[in-house]
Structure formats: C-alpha cells, structure tokens
Amino acid sequence: MARVELLMPKMGESIIEATILKWVKKVGENVSMDETILEIATDKVDSEIPSPAAGVITEILFPEDSVVPVGHIIAIISTEGGADAVQASPSVSVPDPVAAVVMEIPGKMPTVVIGSSDDRFYSPLVKSIAKEENVSQAELDKILGSGTNGRVTKSDILDYVSSRSGKPETTASSVSPANVTTSPTAASKAPTAQTSTARVSSSASGNFEIIEMDRMRKLIADHMVMSMQVSPHVTSFVEADVTSLFQWREKNKGKFKEKNGENITFTPLFIHAVAKAIKDYPMINVSVDGHSI
Question: What is the largest CA-CA distance in the chain?
Fold first, then answer.
C-alpha cells in the first residue's frame, strides 16, 4: 500500500493558514479521486478540498476547527501501489470569470449560464441536498460553483434552493426607519446582495429579526475594526517645489519615448524619491505590533 500525504493547500499568495471547518470523510472510509475530503476556510474564501488520489483515509492529523499552516500534512490516504510516501496538495484554482456569466434580475431567481458540464464533479453532500430538494441534474448543472475549479459547494446549492423557493424576503432597505433602532451591532449585521444568510425581515406590527453574520462577514468586520485600532487613518499634506523634477522630465521625455515607445510620467520619479527617502529615513517604513514598532 502507498501512502499519500494530503497537504493543506495554498489558497492565495497572502494566505499562510486555513481553518478546518468539517471533515466530510472519516478514518477508514473510502475516497475516490476528486471526491471532497474536507471543508476549509481562510480569511478570503471557504472551499471544499478534493482528494488527490483514490484510496482509504487511514489517518486524520488535525480535528475540526484547527488552524493549520499551509503545506502541513493534514491527513494520510492509503492507496494500492508502492510503499513510497507521496506528498499531494489538491489543485486549487480560481474559476475563470469568462467561463461563467451571472445575470441577476431584481425579484427573480438568478439566471446562470456556464460552459459544458459533462465532466463536472459533484460531492456526495451536494448530491444528497439536490435529491432532498428535488433539484434536477439540469438545474444542478446551471448553478455557478464558488468552490475549487468552479465546483458547486454546499453553500451554492443551499443559496440556489433558497432563491428557487421564491419566498418573499424584506431586506434592510425596506424596513421602516421608525421600526429599527440603529446600533453598532445591528448596523454591522445589515445584509448585502451577496449574503443569503444575513436577512432582516419585518412584520406589520413592526417586529424585526436580525440573523447572525456568517463567518466571512465576521472576519471582514473584525479586521476593519482592528485596522482602525492599530493604525488610525491620518493624512498629512506637505508642499514641495518640484520645478527641477518637471524640467528634467521635459528634457528627457522625448528620448524616453523614442527608446521605449511610451511617455514617461511623474509616477516613476515619485517612486524613486520614496525609495531614496526610506533609505535615508528608515523609520518611515515601520509597522505597529501592539505597543512595539
């Protein structure tokens, strides 16, 4: 039996860790190639991670809700073959925006147009939800997936089912100001067009319901507040005489265009000045960590 080491995939250039939301497969269960093994979340996106090989899950190294650095081994898959261990990180890519077009019409279910779906993969969880909600294969093929390689996730199909039900919902914009008491907590939970879970509904009596934010919206709100606490936003204006800079550009812009085929702007000159200033005054290029610089 060969061992395949499943690594925590890198979901973007700035992503260094991810949180394990749910293990779809357990130890001892069989898994097929590209079948969903677990669901993870980062500060930017939630995603289902497919299996890089067909085999049996023999070991899970991190429990749910664990925060795991990118590149760490999170599970072991035993496959038929040699005895050498193989490190495998699932292929994660952003869906091509040209391959899918979404047209949203107010008050109607979004119409989704996608490319060929003959070889499209659906996880057992998505298939199960589709069966329970009587979603046909044709409808399933039209859903725009937000997961890996455009894969339809649990959230995608639940959003589709919610839209298909056609139940009228009253958003925050339709709630009468007289019926809503504004507070920082309530304001931060106002829904947007991209969120299907955060809804505000009102009745004739003036009562309203506020549903808790989803995980992604909580992170965005927390990071925005933290940004203001760590480094308050202040703008300073200082006048500078750039006559010599202007004269140098006028003198050299003809030669520059002849050599490069483009006009030289002031931007690279400002960048050059900033780079020199940082070398002369390194304290300009600092960051704050608590009470330390």
Answer: 74
Q: Determine the Cα–Cα distance for residues 201 and 172; give it in Å rounded to an integer.
A: 7
Spatial distance between the Cα atoms of 86 and 230, rounded to a whole number of angstroms: 43
Give whole-number Cα distances, 257 to 3, 183, 242, 254, in Å: 59, 57, 22, 5
Distance, in Å, from the CA atom of 78 to the CA atom of 55, rounded to the nearest integer, reads: 5
Dist CA 169 CA 172 (whole Å):
10
Q: What is the pLDDT of residues 201-259, one digit of tens each?
A: 554 556 778 888 877 788 888 888 888 877 778 888 999 899 999 999 999 999 999 99
Pairing state between β 30-31 and 55-60: antiparallel
- Which pairs count as long-range contacts for 189-192, CB under 8 Å and 24+ apart, including other chains? 189/213
